[in-house]
Amino acid sequence: xxxxxxxxxxxxxxxxxxxxANRLLNSIEQRRPIxxxxxxxxxxxxxxxxxxxxxxxxxxxxxxxxxxxxxxxRVLIALNPTELxxxxxxxxxxxxxxxxVLDLGAAGVIVPxxxxxxxxxxxxxxAKYPPDGIRSWGPRRVASxxxxxxxxxxxxxxxxLVFAQVETKESVDNLDDILAVPGLSxxxxxxxxxxxxxxxMHDRDNQVVQDTVQAVLDRCLEVDxxxxxxxxxxxxxxxxxxxxxLIINCSSDATFVAEGFARVAAAMAAAQKTTS
Length: 276
Known about the structure:
The chain has 276 residues and is of the alpha/beta class. It has one domain: Phosphoenolpyruvate-binding domains (TIM Barrel, Alpha-Beta Barrel), CATH 3.20.20.60. 48% of the residues lie in helices and 15% in strands. The protein is built from 13 helices and eight strands. Helix 4 runs parallel beside helix 5.
């Protein structure tokens, strides 16, 4: 399956933030993949250059990149209106952090290091208003996209996406308990941390790691919970998509810039040799 517009694309144009979130949800519910990439370069010019990209989401990584709340807000402003939803990998499974990024207008969150059912319940609760969760009321920015606070309140719990990262041996051991948590939109494999947790820091493509990822995917398919993967390249993205992954984050803008520059430099170096 090729990357691109083979999936439903979310937009902000007519109905606010939840037009975008609903379309991502609709794709996942209809078992059509959503595809995006990590946005790691904190520069509005780079963000704006991505406005017309034929993808479903950008992932703002607040766990491993120097993105703060103000940087996230600038990304959301630069992408409104566009056809790109914004998912945020939050720094930790913290109800304040999760609430803040949703208040700013993120379509959903990816929560790292979800190792137990308790962790998964906490992540979902942080993203949902009572009685479904414990999210504090304060959607000053995101409510304006939806028309008003009352309209936002009516649909927020049903539209926010919450993905749990399965990235440790403990989380794999507790997988069934995690997958059974109501309100969880799906799980994302963190392949690097999973490999390290399994004892393969220096051999992350070890067959044991690949078999573990496959086992998680197989179980997700069995219980009909969407499975996602952080793919370092297109080849790996296609590999897991063809096997049933529904959420694919393929590489990052920083990697694309570095790879593009490397190709140009290599081509020019080769040309210099032929002309010297």
